[in-house]
Structures are given as structure tokens and as C-alpha cells.
Predict the 3D structure of the following.
Amino acid sequence: MYGLDKIKKGARTGVGFAVLTGFAVAVSGMALASERPFGLGTLATAEQVAGWDIDVRPDGKGAPIGSGTAAQGEAVYAERCAACHGDFGEGVDRWPILAGGHGSLATIDPVKTVGSYWPYASTVYDYVYRAMPFGEAQSLTHDETYQVVAYILYMNDVIDEEFVLSNKTIGSVKMPNRNGFSLPDPRPDGQPKGEPCMTNCKVSTKIIGRARIIDVTPDSQ
């Protein structure tokens, strides 16, 4: 910055005025820039937001309108899913197993499948519609997704072949491991014993043992 003496000296030549004018322009430019948006991206439209709003909650809220049965889903599964997951959900090569594994979670070799591990049917729908088939995500219609999910649930003995899985019924499906992700707190320190003390709560202290006395600490005398 120019010192005051230099500004006074430069006033005769117009240099000081130019400096001050340039500073004023710079400050005003900064003020105007702070009022403008950053110019990064654009506001999302309602249609764009709706394209991302595809999650389905455990109670079925958010499930899109549609329906399907396991009988209908068998053909869709055979065409779009069986190449990786096997005809009966057994998994091909190292692709995920979808069916079986009941009672194996507490063993040394747990088999985590839709039937043995997943807690909610809504999660199955959400994942299948969002990410499957592998490499062709979101290519299934809502009805086809309900059909495939119904077939997977049927293979895991969760629903019968005639059950109509839909946006109205998916929240009512009870998965075998629905309670497997929450346990009661087993710690005794979290359970109060009797009524809490509110007054005169000091307890006496009783010495029940001492370290060997070697008389190295000076007394008060």
C-alpha cells in the first residue's frame, strides 16, 4: 500500500488519485462478487430430485406403485438374474448366494443370504431396483422388480407362490432375521437397583487392606 506521504506527493501528478480510484473499484468489485452465486452447477429440478428419491423404507413407505408374484418373477429371474446367482439362488462361481443359510449366522461359517441375514423385504426391493442386474442397473420396471423380489423371497420360504408383493404389502413381510440387528443391553450397570438416593447419600469408608507399612513417610511432627 502507498503511504500517506506518497499519496500526497503523488496527488500533484495524479498517481495518488489513480491508486485510490483503483482501490475503490477493487473493493466495489469484491462487494458485487460476494452477492453473486458461486456459479458451480445449477439448481436441481423437481424431476431430477424425483429420480434420486427411490429409497424404500422398512414400513413400505416410498415403495413405488406396482406388484408381482413369485410365479411371475420366476421367468424374469431366469432371464435377468440366474446367470450370476444360479437357478435356485445358489450363486454361480463367486457371485453372491441369495437363498439358504438359515441358522448359520452363529456358526463358524455363516452364510448371509436374503433369507438368513437381510432384515427387511424393502431393502431387497431397494437394492434390486437401484443396482441390479449387474451392469444394467435400473433397467427393470417396478412390476418386474416386485416380481423378482417375490421370487427371491419365495426361494427363501418367506412368502408363498401366490402372495402378491406390492407397494401396499411389502411393509408387512416378516423376514426371519428382522430382530437380528438389535439386542437388549446385557450390561448390569445400565439397570438401576432400587430407588436412587436423593439426600444424605454419603456412605462410610472401611479400609479392608493396607500395603506393607515401612515408615518412610514423615509424620506431622
User: Anything to note?
Assistant: Residues 15-35 form the longest helix (21 residues). Strands lie at 67-68, 165-166.
